[in-house]
């Protein structure tokens, strides 16, 4: 019965024109438009150097990592030069900002702070760079502390021979400089040539395509519930248990959704020449989790809301589009604004989990943030599945 | 006779409205039981309660001697349902639609194939196997709807208004099919508001109004409930009031109505009413085109019991 229902679920879902449009055609059409629209913008933006100021106080002067990194990123000999920097005092920085002569300024007091007047791509770049340096600084400090402790332990345990303090410090210094060099390379990757509008749009596009799996989940549930459709009444009157029918329909939906995502990847990579970087397997893994999140969201909406098909489809599409909007589909600035002012919203927004997971793969060497987003998506999907099961357990209805 | 369905004191309430009010009835093996009533009388609600799709407030339901529950899969295997609204997949062909629903009951492909062919033949869709629903007329869709509900050869079949909005050819085909199902041994519960179908098909009839049983029995038994015995219609032009008054005085006449050239006379019980009327018309040299006599219909019974027409 499971295979029988799976087979016919495939047939009905694949022949449903509305579903095919939203699952297969719409993301591809939108991707084509993105490519056409954003490639020109990107080319014109690529050469932009951002004017910023840095408050040259004692904290900045004593912070080697910030000092060296910004020096590197504003070096005229650097092909990936990102900033034109004016080193000023705080009053002058404020004045420059008020006169719109700079995008923003960095001031290090207890912590590094970015001061900007508006939100935009340049402000976002400045923010990302500062965050990245802060993160790296923290990491290096931890590593340095650990390495010193390690060396002392090794010397006490006799694992390494104590020659001189100079020698030990040199070893630690070399290891940290090595790491710093690697990190500088990482930061320099966040240059105008790599922080691509198109990439960000394609991340949100994939997030949207994943979440549109909700429509497939919705249809799979609706056609099997007696209070949702006439076919559901017939299915409910059959001797096949409800869980079998629903599971096979949802599985068919998931497979179709994965096919849709695979086609989107193939089309964007080969036809639109989108470069997803070197982590394609992890990107695919995140997309699979995103599809599961989207599908389970549709299943939950279908199970919980007792209203007609069109309204439910509207809810899924609205939720998806709004989620993508907040995660930067209609402009990266929105993601920055939400991250800054309402961080919890994007932590709970599956579209943001997907796009942020992609960003983290692209921008960071470590996978911590990627796995955080992956686990968040799976947790979201699990929550949706639990809600659906609780709602679907009902066997009889007050109204049908 | 063996009971197939036993319904006792079934009550279904929607907030303050009693959609089904304390219904008690049995359905016997091999019969066609008609549930007759106007729209909103509780026919479909009763069926949905019997099928355990709807919660009900009170009462008990047994099918084949066992309590009907949503997970009574052994009972469901023996039941076929044709719902009032067409329940098919637009994306599947006629054959695939039947195969899909039949496959929920019968796992074996060969056995299923034979059942599907039988169902297609029963409803006369042999020439439309590869057609998609959007290519079918309303009547053919209804036939497909029936085939999907009965392909697995159930012992008990619920047909909920299967002939609503179909053309006469399809209606005849559907009614013939139902007769064949009964002849093959199925027990059928048939809901409709078309009294003609009930008179043709049903062994027994339950008349529902506002969720209550207002009468039950065979069609002849129900017609006995009517005060009138006969209705005579005469097409006659320009009939004087004097003649109408005379006709009212004839034996057994209950009521006389004359409008638009049609004289309608209803009689209480009695014999030779038509002969007496024709004698009178001949004696008075009243010329008429057509004259015909009718027995009371179930609609007359319903009208008499509730004061309204079945199709109100």
State the name of the first-level CATH class of the largest domain in chain B: Alpha Beta
The CATH homologous superfamily of the largest domain in chain B corresponds to P-loop containing nucleotide triphosphate hydrolases
Q: Quick one: overall form of chain B?
A: globular
Order of helices and strands of chain B: EEEHEEHEHHHEHEHEEHEHEEHEH
| Whole-number mean pLDDT of chain A | 84
What's the CATH architecture name of the largest domain in chain B?
A: 3-Layer(aba) Sandwich
Strands of chain A, total number: 4
- Work out the helicity level of chain A: over 70%
Which structural class do the helices and strands of chain A define? mainly alpha
Number of helices of chain A: 17
Quaternary status of these chains?
A: heterodimer
Overall shape of chain A: it is elongated
Would you give the CATH topology of the largest domain in chain B? Rossmann fold
Terminal CA distance of chain B: 35 Å
* Main beta sheet strand tally, sense and closure of chain A: 4 strands, mixed
What percentage of the residues of chain A does DSSP assign to strands (E)?
5-15%
Q: Which chains share the greatest interface?
A: A-B, 29 and 33 residues
Strands of the widest sheet of chain B, in order across it, are: 6-7-8-3-9-10
């Amino acid at each position: 019965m499971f295979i029988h229902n799976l087979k016919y679920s495939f047939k009905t879902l694949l022949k449903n024109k509305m579903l095919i449009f939203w699952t297969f055609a719409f993301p591809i059409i939108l991707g084509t438009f993105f490519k056409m629209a954003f490639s020109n913008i990107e080319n014109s933006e690529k050469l932009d150097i951002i004017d910023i100021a840095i408050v040259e106080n004692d904290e900045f002067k004593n912070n080697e990592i910030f000092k060296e990194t910004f020096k590197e990123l504003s070096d005229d000999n650097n092909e990936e030069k990102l900033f034109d920097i004016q080193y000023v005092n705080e009053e002058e920085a404020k004045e420059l900002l008020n006169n719109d002569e700079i995008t923003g300024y960095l001031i290090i007091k207890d912590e590094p702070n970015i001061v900007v007047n508006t939100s935009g791509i340049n402000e976002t770049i400045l923010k990302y760079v500062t965050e990245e340096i802060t993160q790296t600084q923290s990491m290096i400090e931890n590593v340095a502390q650990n390495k010193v402790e390690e060396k002392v332990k090794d010397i006490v345990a006799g694992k390494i021979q104590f020659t001189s303090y100079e020698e030990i410090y040199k070893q630690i210094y070399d290891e940290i400089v090595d790491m710093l060099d690697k990190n500088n390379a990482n930061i320099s990757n966040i240059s105008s040539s790599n922080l691509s509008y198109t990439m960000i749009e394609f991340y949100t596009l994939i997030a949207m395509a994943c979440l549109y799996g909700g429509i497939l989940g919705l249809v799979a549930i609706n056609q099997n519930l007696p209070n949702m459709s006439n076919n559901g009444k017939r299915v409910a009157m059959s001797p096949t248990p409800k869980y079998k029918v629903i599971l096979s329909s949802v599985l068919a939906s998931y497979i179709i959704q994965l096919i849709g995502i695979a086609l989107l990847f193939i089309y964007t990579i080969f036809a639109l020449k989108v470069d997803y970087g070197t982590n394609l397997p992890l990107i695919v893994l995140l997309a699979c989790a995103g599809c599961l999140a989207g599908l389970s969201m549709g299943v939950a909406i279908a199970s919980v809301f007792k209203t007609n098909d069109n309204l439910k489809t509207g809810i899924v599409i609205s939720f998806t589009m709004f989620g993508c909007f907040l995660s930067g589909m209609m402009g990266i600035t929105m993601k920055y604004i939400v991250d800054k002012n309402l961080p919890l919203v994007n932590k709970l927004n599956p579209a943001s989990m997907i796009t942020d997971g992609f960003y983290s793969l692209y921008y960071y060497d470590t996978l911590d943030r990627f796995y955080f987003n992956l686990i968040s998506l799976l947790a979201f999907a699990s929550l949706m599945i639990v809600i659906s099961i609780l709602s679907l357990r009902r066997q009889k209805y007050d109204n049908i | 006779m063996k009971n197939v369905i036993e319904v006792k004191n079934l009550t279904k309430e929607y907030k303050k409205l009693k959609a089904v009010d304390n219904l008690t009835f049995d359905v016997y093996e091999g019969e066609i039981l008609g549930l007759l009533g106007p729209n909103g009388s509780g026919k479909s609600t009763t069926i949905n309660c019997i099928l355990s799709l709807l919660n009900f407030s009170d009462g008990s339901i047994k099918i084949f001697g066992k309590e009907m529950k949503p997970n009574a899969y052994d009972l469901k295997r023996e039941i076929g349902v044709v719902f009032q609204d067409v329940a098919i997949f637009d994306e599947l062909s006629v054959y695939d639609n039947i195969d899909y629903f039949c496959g929920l009951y019968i796992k074996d492909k060969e056995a299923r194939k034979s059942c599907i062919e039988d169902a297609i033949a029963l409803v006369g869709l042999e020439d439309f196997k590869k057609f998609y629903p959007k290519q079918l007329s309303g009547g053919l869709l209804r036939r497909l709807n029936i085939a999907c509900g009965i392909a697995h050869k159930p012992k008990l079949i619920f047909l909920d208004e299967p002939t609503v909005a179909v053309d006469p050819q399809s209606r005849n085909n559907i009614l013939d099919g139902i007769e064949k199902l009964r002849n093959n041994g199925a027990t059928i519960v048939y809901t409709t508001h078309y009294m003609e179908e009930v008179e043709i098909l049903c062994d027994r009839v339950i008349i529902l109004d506002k969720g209550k049983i207002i009468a039950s029995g065979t069609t002849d038994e129900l017609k006995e409930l009517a005060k009138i015995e006969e209705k005579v219609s005469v097409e006659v032009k320009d009939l004087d009031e004097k003649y109408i008054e005379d006709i009212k005085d004839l034996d057994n006449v209950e009521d006389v109505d004359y409008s638009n050239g049609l004289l309608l006379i209803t009689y209480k019980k009695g014999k030779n009413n038509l002969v007496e009327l024709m004698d009178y018309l001949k004696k008075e040299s009243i010329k008429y085109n057509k004259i015909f006599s009718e027995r009371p219909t179930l609609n007359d019974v319903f009208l008499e019991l509730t004061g309204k027409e079945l199709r109100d």
